[in-house]
TrEMBL record:
Organism for this UniProt entry: Fundulus heteroclitus (Killifish)
A Gene Ontology molecular function term of the record: signaling receptor activity
Chain ranges of the TIR domain: 747-892
Main subcellular location of this protein, as a coarse class: membrane
GO biological process: inflammatory response; innate immune response; signal transduction
Name of this chain's protein: Toll-like receptor 13
Amino acid sequence: MAPAALLLLLLLLNVSACSGFGFRSCAQNYNDPGRMWCLNRGIVNISEVVRMFPENTTLINLSKNEIRAVPPGSFAHFAGLKHLDLNQNKLLFLRGEEFRGLHLMQFLNLSCNQISHIHSDTFKGLVSLNVLLLSQNNLSSVSGLLFNLLPAIQAVDLSFNALKSFSCEECGSSSTLKHLNVSVNHIREVNVSCFPALKYVKLSNNSELELQSDVFESNQQLRTLLLVSVKLEALMGLSPQTKRNLSHVSFSMLAEKSPWTICDVLRGMDHISKVDLKGSKLPQSNVSLLDCPTPTTLIFMEAKLGNVARLSSGRRSTGKLCLTNCGLKQISNSTFEGFAALKTLCLDKNAVVIEPDAFRGMTTLRSLNLDRNRIRDIDPRWFLPLKNLTQLSLMKNEITELEPSVFHALTQLEQLYLQFNLLKSLKNRTFSNLFKLQRLSLSLNLICFIQPGTFQDLKNLRFLDLSGNRLRRVTPYILSGLDTLVHLILYNNRLQFRSYESPFVQLTSLEYLEMRYQGPGGGIGDIGPDFFKGLQKLRCINIGNSVKMNIHADAFAPLTSLKILYIDGVVLKDINLTAVLFPLKSLSKLMLNMADLDTLPANLLPPNNSLRILQVSSNHIHTLNKELLDNLPGLVYFDISQNPLSCTCDNSWFKTWATNNAKTQVVYLYNLRCDNNRSSRHLWQFDDKACSYDQISLMLFITCSTTDVLLVFACLVWHTQGPALRLLLLMAKAKLRGRKKGAGAKFQYDAFISYNSRDEDWVMGQLVPNLERPAPGAQRLKLCLHHRDFRPGAAVLENIEAAIYGSRHTICVVTRSYLQSDWCSVEFQLASLRLLCDGSDVLLLVFLEEIPERCLSPYTRLRRIVHKKTYLLWPENPLEQEAFWVRLMDALRDREESKEAGEIGGEQRLAP
């Protein structure tokens, strides 16, 4: 058993500490295993993909693929599926039973396809469906009583189709539907009376729509009605009750075509709180646009207001006013005179000229949006009245410079957005007095210089975005004062560091640092041993995509709390990754994509690491080290896609590991391609039977185990049936030598005497004289005796074999000593087997003493012969001994007479 035990030990020692699995063209969410993501993977055959998903899948996203059809019952084995997204595919028809068995599904997205027909049974069984999205298809009608099949439906989107009508008679009824979007169709008539729970209806961009006054009489819960680019008469003609119910309305008003004003339209809408006038063209000469009570929220988008001196003289209840792309050219202190209670003001995309006192009296304003207004200079006087402003956005303007203390009056400001401008530098005291500022965005400017002390007053700043600029230097003096900064973005600048620098030493609260894309020129430079000094709380670093980056072996030593590390798009093959990553015992996510890696070291991370996610896609890795994954016991997500993996025996272990286990997900496993022109296109198709370690180990284990079992069995049989086996071997040998009885065979002796040496006195004193030297006139026999007739120099077994097969009879002299002798047993067994071999019954048993049957029990064959045949017992009485010899001679003679005539003595031939 030693060989098998040794092999078993080796196999047990070789068991991998980790395991793997993967899917075709999809990835499983590593935080929620029930979520499957298959976005933009070129999937055509949906069945091949989903059959690999676990049965407990709850969400499947198959958007942005090439799926043309969904076979019936494709998702039937996902009984717990709740969310299915098939938008942006090429579906043409829904023929029925595509979603069979999905009784728990709540969300279904079929938008952005080419669906022109839906079978009446398509949605049968979706008893839990809440949301159905069918926008941007080619539907001309909704037939088959759609809503009758969906007892729990709450929201349906049928926008951007070719519907000509929408009525209860066509699509059925629903007592649960609350949200309906049928905008951008060709609808002329609408009947929604069978949807009593409706709260939101969007009918925009149905230019030929006609609404009856009582169309919404059955919809007492209707609060939002959107009718952009619909005839204004449709809204004006609604019943008073319907108008009173509305709280949010959207419509388009064309001044040159409409005899009504905005106030006329809003009349009767007593509970209105939000009005959206997107697409309206209002008169530019009005002194006041709204001479009636205004709603809480008022939105004008693309309304072409022009030079409106005053927007409203009505009640001061509006809290949010948006004037986006309305053509405003100037704002004065009278423009918002009727909106003293305003909290949010959006004036983006207007190219407006702002007078110094434009916001006078707007002390309640909290949020001000001045995006895309071509502002070049900021006047500090704008902000003097805005004592409570917390959010200011000046994005996408043409601001070239910020004067010191320009925002000094905004003492309550918490968020400031200045991205997409033309700033070239930041001066000291630019952000003075902004002690409560928490978020500052300066991205996508032209900043190349920041004066030390610029951020000195930002004592509560937590987020700073300086990405997309031209910064070359960042020093502790520039970043001084940012003691509470948590999130710093330096993406896409021209930073270059020297090995001795510690630029972030004062940012002791920093948790996230983004530094990718530094260039042009020499890249980010040298990441020295003190580069991250002071960043003990840092949890995430995103660095890379740089022409040149050298990382010192001790660079990451201070980062004791680091959880996520991205190093993408930089040459790392000459860097000792083992030394660099050794301090990162708490790391849970590591990205080394596009890093020009040829291999991954086995000890990539220190022992007892916490890594859960490893991504090394788009490198030059051909083979993987098994020890690498063994040393990552907590790994649950492994991405090695876009690498030229070798489909050879070196990776056969990885194929087996990745396809047969269920702990570590190998992302896009069934899309991993081979790097050669072998018959296998993908790694999973590679035939590794000839080199698979696991299969060879199993075969060796089975072979050695079987051999050991057979060996033990053979030893056991040899121990218990050794003599019989030896006799069988002798018989086989005798047959091969032609000693088996046949035509022309001769006997050399009349009888072979089998006896124990302790009984030799009786044999030589009694048996031999009476058989070989009888009284005159009696037949003489030729006997074969051990000591006299065995051939000297020959093996004992060969002599025994020759004696038995060379004698007509075998006389066994049985005593207790005979039964205990192994050689006597061999002689007896061989003689008894002659009957089986050539049909010759040659045995004669002579007992010299009485032997109880219990003593014969271990000798099965002897006991059987004693029970079946007569044997001779040597009498102790001398008077009976003469009769013994007569009976023995008769027994020998009787057997001889049964042979054919002509058999004489030991020299005669036996009959065939």
